[in-house]
Every structure is written in C-alpha cells, then in structure tokens.
Amino acid sequence: MLVLMSKFAFKTVAILIGLGVILEVTLRLFFGFCNAPLYIEDPDYEYIYAPNQRVVRFDNVIETNAFSMRSKAIAPTDTTVVLLLGDSVINGGNLSGNNALASSQLELRLTKSLGRAVRVLNISAGSWGPDNAAAYLKKWGTFKADLLCLVASSHDAHDNITHQAVVGVSRNHPKKQYASAIYELWVRYVFPRANYYVSHDLLMNQNFAPKPAQIHKNGKIFNAGFEQLRALSEELAIPFVLYLHAETSEIAAKKYNSEGQEIINFAKTHPSVQLIEDLRLGVGPALYRDNDLVHFNDDGQRFLSNQLFPVFLTNLRRAQK
Fold it and tell me: Which residue, among 87, 86, 91, 33, has the nearest Cα to 62 in the 3D structure?
C-alpha cells in the first residue's frame, strides 16, 4: 500500500511540475512574461521607460530610444520635429505596439504629405502630468522642435508632481524582470484582481461599491506644466497645441467636468494656445479599451492621429513659408 501511495505521489508531483513547465514556457513565449518594459527613476520628472528597449509583450512591440521616448532613434539629420507630450493615453503601455501609436502614424503621414522627413517624438509615461513633461524638456532640451503638442485629460489639471517613489515599488513600474513568468502572472495580475474581489465581497454579494466613474487627482493647485509648456513654446516661437481628451464619464455627460473646464479656461486666457476638444469631434466609447475610463484602443489611436494630422500639417506648412 505504501509503495502504491509513493508511486501515486511521485506521478502527481511529476504531472504538476510538467504542467508548471508548460505554463512557464507558454507565458514567456506567447504572452511576453518576464519581458516587460522596464522603468527608471529620475529626480526631475519622477520616472520614465528605460532607454533603448525593445520588448514584445502581449504580442505588441514596445520600443524606446536613447531618450526613453516611444520613438525611433533621433538622428542629426532630423529637421522637422514635433514633440507629442502626455501620459499613458499617448504612451500606450503594454497594450499598444509602437506602430499602432498615434505618434508613429502621424510621423508617416506628415512625412508623406510634406515630402520631407518629419519626426513626431513620443515623450510620455503613464500618469505623467504636464509638469512631468515640462521637467523632461528642461532637462533634455527641445530637440529642435517646430511644434509642441500636449495631450491632456481633465484630471491632469491637478495631477501635480509628488516625487513619490514608484519604480520597483509599484507592480506597474518594474525596474527588473521577474525570474518566473508564473510568479509575475500571480503578483501583477491574478492576486490584485482576486484581492479586489475578496475585499469587496464580490464572490457572494453583488451589492458592492462600483469602481470610480472618473479619474481624480489630489493636487491642490492648477498644474504648473500647462503654463511652463506654453511659455516654452513662446520662447521658441513655435505653436503650442493642447488636445483635451475626454474620459468616458464626460462622453456620457456630453461635457467636460470642472477640472476639464479649468484647462479650457486656461487655453481661452492664452490666445496662442491652439485648443482641440475631442468631445466636439465625435470621440466615443468604442475608441476606448474595454472597461477603461480614459485609454484609447488601437482605433482610438487612429482617431487621435486623424484629429491632430490636419492641425500639425497646417502649422508645419506655415512654418515652412
């Protein structure tokens, strides 16, 4: 009997190990686990993707250049340059490959239309506010820019720099790869969701508090980055385009919330700011990721490209004359 039990235990352990190996290999080869884009800390603008990365995650290619932009390498021959600044909306994260980003699409379309090489440099990171972007430009310069464009949402009105450590602390800002794909799956995806369900008693009770309908930041003052970027564009004598991107709650309400109105009022008090409000341009829930309040899917990235293209083209043609 003991021999039979030992054989059964051995087979069970062998099967479990085999299944674990299969799962580990599958997660690595087909989903890009242990191959996440990594982050670095910065004393000026808090954090950003590490430079010179090329990883494949969830079948999406995520690339950064030497300046941590989600763009191809900068060349000395770059003569027409647009700086596209923002947070995860333009960055795309793990769920958008570089080729799907609005910045990449705009670069190709503007190059074709103007008959010369145009760079649209994607300077962004998830949860950045305008002051993060302004701090980045103060540190690295403006790359001979011909145009600045900030893509912001209403919550950016008070999304102020805090310099709170997140790199290597937050599961969404890894600074090194996990040693095991199974462990990464558990730590970054399974456990947080299971913990949410348990903490809200969702397994047995459907009467729980819903997720927030809108994003809210706790900054006490209007984000200084809006004015810093406007002043920089004036100093450089180049256009400043401000694209105000709606959250899904604002689409439902058919108007921007009070924080969005603060951004609109800022633009109205500075006539040089070219304001684009996507609520007026037909933005809709189908352009957002499933169950997401603010992030564009690939169709949304194309929508963003379509809205910015004629504005960029007009400004760059005017600068050429």
Answer: 91
pLDDT (tens digit per residue) in 289-307: 999 999 999 999 999 999 9
The first and second tokens of residue 87, run together, are 């947070």
Which one of 186-195, 216-225, 267-276 scores highest in mean pLDDT?
267-276
Nearest to 94 by CA among 65, 60, 68: 60
Q: Which option is the CATH number for 73-162+214-320: 3.30.450.40, 3.40.50.1820, 3.30.360.10, 3.40.50.1110?
A: 3.40.50.1110
| Amino acid occupying residue 64 | T
Domain ranges for the chain: 73-162+214-320
The whole-number pLDDT of residue 9 equals 78
Cα separation of 15 and 98, whole Å?
40
